[in-house]
Amino acid sequence: MPQRRPWYATLYVQVLIAIVVGIFIGRFFPKAGIALKPLGDGFVSLIRMMIAPVIFCVVVQGIASMSDLKKVGTVGVKALVYFEIVSTVALIAGILVAKILHPGSGLNIDPATLDPKTAATFVTHAKEAGFIAFLLGFIPRTFVDALAGGAVPQVLLISILTGFAISRMGEAGQRATRAIELANKVVFGIIRIIVKAAPLGALGGMAFTVGSYGLNSLSSLLKLIGTFYLTSILFIVIIFGAIAYGVGFSIFRFLAFIKDELLIVLGTSSSETVLPDMMQKLERLGASRSVVGLVFPTGYVFNTDGTNIYLTLAVLFLAQATNTHLSLAQEGAILLFALIASKGGSGVTGTGFVTLAAILAAVPSIPVQSLAILLGVEKFMSECRALTNVIGNGVATLVVSRWEGELDVPRMRAIMADSADSPPENGGAPATDHS
Predict the structure, then answer these.
(1) Angle between helices 378-403 and 259-268 in degrees, nearest 10
(2) Residue 3: left if φ>0, alpha if ψ -120 to 50, beta else—which one?
(3) Which one, of 422, 425, 418, lies nearest residue 9 by Cα?
(4) Which one is the CATH code of 7-421: 3.20.20.70, 3.10.20.30, 1.10.3860.10, 1.10.287.380?
(5) Is 283 within 8 Å of 289 (Cβ atoms)?
(6) pLDDT band at 393 (very low <50, low <70, confident <90, very high)
(7) Is the pLDDT of residue 319 over 80?
(8) Which pLDDT tens digit goes with each residue over 97-116?
(9) H helices of 10-130, where?
(10) Which string of DSSP letters, residue by residue, matches 141-188?
(11) How far, in Å, CA of 12 to CA of 262, rounded?
(12) Which of 1, 166, 170, 351 is 20 to 30 A from 234 via CA?
C-alpha cells in the first residue's frame, strides 16, 4: 500500500495556506502585495494557454468515438434546456433577495456626484455586445485562429465540426481518434506540471486583491458583498443541493471532492483556471468523456449562474442606492433583458460589468454612471461569481450524464465519500486515467 503523503503536501492545503499568507501580505504590506500580481497573472496565463487544447482534444475524441452521432444533438439540447432553466432561477433569486434585504437602502447616493467617465469603458463594450454579436463570436477568422485565441465558443465550434468529420472517415478516422487520444494525454501531462504552481498563483492573486483595494474599502458596500455571498451560498445549498439530491449525490460531498479547484478559483478569481482539472474530475466520477466535453465547456458560455445572481442583485442594489423607484413592469423588463444579455455578454472581458452596463442602458431610469459605485468591490464579487459558476457547471454535467444513463451513481458516491473522508494521496493532482 503506498505511503500517504503528509498533510502539508496536499494541494488544497498548500493553496489554503497561500491564500491566508496572501491576505496577510496584502493587508499589512500592500505595496508588496501589489508587486506580487505577476504570480497570479502568470498562473492564470499558464492555464489559459492549455484551455483550447484541452477542449479540442476532449470534445473531438468524445464525438469521434460515438457510434450514434444523433446523441451529440440530444446531449446539446438537454444541456441547453437545463442551462436556461437554472439560469432563470438564478436571475429571479437575485431579484428576490434584493427586494427582501434591500442592500442598497440608506446609501442615498446622488448620481450627479459620480464621474460618468468611470463607467464609460464598460458602456462602450456593452453597446458592442449583443445576442447577434454573441452568435457571430462563435465563428473564428480561421481554424488556427480559434486555437491561438483560446475563446471557448470558437474552440467548441471547431472541435464539434472536427469530431463530426473524423467520425465519418471510417478506418482513417479511427487512426485520427487514436492520435487525438495520445495528444490528450500529453496535454493533461502538461497541466499536471502547471497545477503544482497553483499555490503561488493563489498567493499572488489574493495579495494583489487585498493590497490594491484594501479591507477598509469594503465597509460602505459590505452589505452588498454579504448579500451576494449569502445568496450564492443559499443558491448552492438549496437549488444545487436539491438538483444533486435528485441525481443521487450530496452537494456537500461534491464540494469536498472539488475543494482543490474551489480554492484555486478563490485565489485567482478566475473559473478558467480549473476548467481542465474539473473535466478530469467529472470523468473520475463516472461521467462519460463525450458528455463532459460537450456540457462543461458549454456551461462557461451558457450557464453562468453566479454571474446571473450578481446581475439582477446589482441592478436592484444600484436602484436602491440612488433612490430610484422601479415598478413591477420595470423589474420584469430587467429580468427579460438579463436573460438575453447574460448570454450575449459571455466571453467578453469583464463579462459581469459589461453585461450589467448593458442592462442599465436598457433601464434608463437607473443612471449608468452608478456603475462607478461597484468598481471598488468588483474583484471581491468576481471571486464569488467564479466559484458559483464552476459549481453550477459541475452539477450540470453530472445531471446531463444521469439523463443520458451514463452515470455510475454507486461509483460516484464511493469516490465522493473517499474524497471527503481522506485527503488525496497524490498531493491533490487529478487522476490521469483516460482509458
Answers:
(1) 150
(2) beta
(3) 425
(4) 1.10.3860.10
(5) yes
(6) very high
(7) yes
(8) 999 988 878 777 766 665 55
(9) 11-28, 30-35, 37-64, 70-101, 120-128
(10) SSHHHHHHH--HHHHHHHHHHHHHHHHTSTHHHHHHHHHHHHHHHHHH
(11) 9
(12) 351
Instruction: Give the other-Cβ count within 10 Å of 311's Cβ.
Output: 30
Contacts 24+ apart (CB under 8 A), 116-124: 116/368, 116/369, 118/369, 118/371, 118/372, 118/375, 119/357, 119/368, 119/369, 119/370, 119/371, 119/372, 122/350, 122/353, 122/354, 122/356, 122/357, 122/371, 123/357, 123/361, 123/368, 123/371
Take residue 402 and report the three cell numbers written for it.
444521469
> DSSP secondary-structure letter at 57?
H
Read off the pTM.
Answer: 0.76
Amino acid letter for position 313: L
The secondary element (H helix, E strand) that includes residue 205 is helix 198-213
Burial zone of 21 (CB within 10 Å; 0-12 exposed, 13-18 middle, 19+ buried): middle
| Per-domain residue ranges of the chain | 7-421
Average pLDDT over residues 410-420: 83
* The pLDDT value given to residue 332: 84
Q: Which three cell numbers stand for residue 188?
A: 493533461
